[in-house]
Amino acid sequence: MSNSKPGKVWLVGAGPGDPDLLTVKALRVIQNADLVLFDNLVSQEIRALFPKSVPAFYVGKCKDNHSIAQKDLNSLLVKKAAKGLNVVRIKGGDPFVFGRGGEELLTLIKAGVDAEVVPGITSASGCTTAAGIPLTHRGLAQGCTFVTAHAETELSVDWNALAQINHTLVFYMGVSRAEMIASNLLKAGLSAATPVAIIENGCRENQREVIGQIKDLVSLVANNNVQSPALIVVGEVVSLANDLNPELRAAVSAETLNQHVA
Ligand code: SAH
């Protein structure tokens, strides 16, 4: 590291949690970092890959508990890069999917700082795959929409459009908004029997899936004490989890195997 060499900020996507789902580029960038700034959604297994000799700071934003204000974080990134450091700003999933990556990149570009985004597997993709739910499937869903259930100010979502498009809906940050999501979709005409899955801690050791129907979304969340981070997936594709979920498949084959052995 030298003061004459300009620094660079890498906005890196960590994926949903499993370190094997980091991209090769993300790992390479992490290994070359002078400073790492990480979010709460970056799993412990991924934090364990940060170089031991390099300082790593938590700059996460849990709901109602922001360790550092976004504008202070933006100026920290600019300041550290100006000192010639190779800064890795690593976030859960993909930085450009509900990750404020665009805002950070705009600030860096305006400040004349060299910056690059390394995409990550967004949780909607990683978690549904781990639960055996294809986001699209011929005959069931010809498209997929990612929706945030939280907004800086007021949420502006066209529920009528979402309820009519007849494809997969994935809600990020939706656990505490289950009532709002279900009631708006039902009011807009979505069938009460539409399958839903709630995937908690997807792509991690403690992944849990709760499956049911949209009319029961609120009680599914409450009765199973679902905690963040969790995604809510709405659509007919959820029914495929019965056949495609890797754990269910393993259980079925073990059963079949036992029958053969017995
Ligand atoms: N940039 C991230 C999303 C950040 S918003 C991405 O691309 O995935 C935070 C929300 O993402 C959480 O509230 C939750 O809805 C979802 N999420 C992130 N990681 C998750 C995980 N491992 N399991 C389930 N949901 C997750």
TrEMBL record:
- State which Enzyme Commission number(s) the record gives: 2.1.1.107
InterPro entries, alphabetized: 4pyrrol_Mease (IPR000878), 4pyrrol_Methylase_sf (IPR035996), 4pyrrole_Mease_sub1 (IPR014777), 4pyrrole_Mease_sub2 (IPR014776), CobA/CysG_C (IPR006366), Siro_Cobalamin_biosynth (IPR050161), Uropor_MeTrfase_CS (IPR003043)
Return the broad EC class.
transferase
Which terms under GO biological process does the entry name?
cobalamin biosynthetic process; methylation; siroheme biosynthetic process
Instruction: Cite the Tetrapyrrole methylase domain residue spans from the record.
Output: 8-217
Listed pathway(s) = Cofactor biosynthesis; adenosylcobalamin biosynthesis; precorrin-2 from uroporphyrinogen III: step 1/1; Porphyrin-containing compound metabolism; siroheme biosynthesis; precorrin-2 from uroporphyrinogen III: step 1/1
Q: Which CDD domains match?
A: SUMT
Q: Does the keyword S-adenosyl-L-methionine apply?
A: yes
Q: Which UniProt keywords apply?
A: Cobalamin biosynthesis, Lyase, Methyltransferase, Multifunctional enzyme, Oxidoreductase, Porphyrin biosynthesis, S-adenosyl-L-methionine, Transferase
Family statement drawn from the similarity comment of this UniProt entry = Belongs to the precorrin methyltransferase family.
Iron-sulfur as UniProt keyword? no
Named from the GO MF annotations, one term is: uroporphyrin-III C-methyltransferase activity
Q: Which Gene3D superfamilies match?
A: Cobalt-precorrin-4 Transmethylase, Domain 1 (3.40.1010.10), Methyltransferase, Cobalt-precorrin-4 Transmethylase, Domain 2 (3.30.950.10)
Question: Out of the domains of life, which is the source?
Answer: Bacteria
This chain belongs to the protein called uroporphyrinogen-III C-methyltransferase
Q: Name one Pfam family in it.
A: TP_methylase
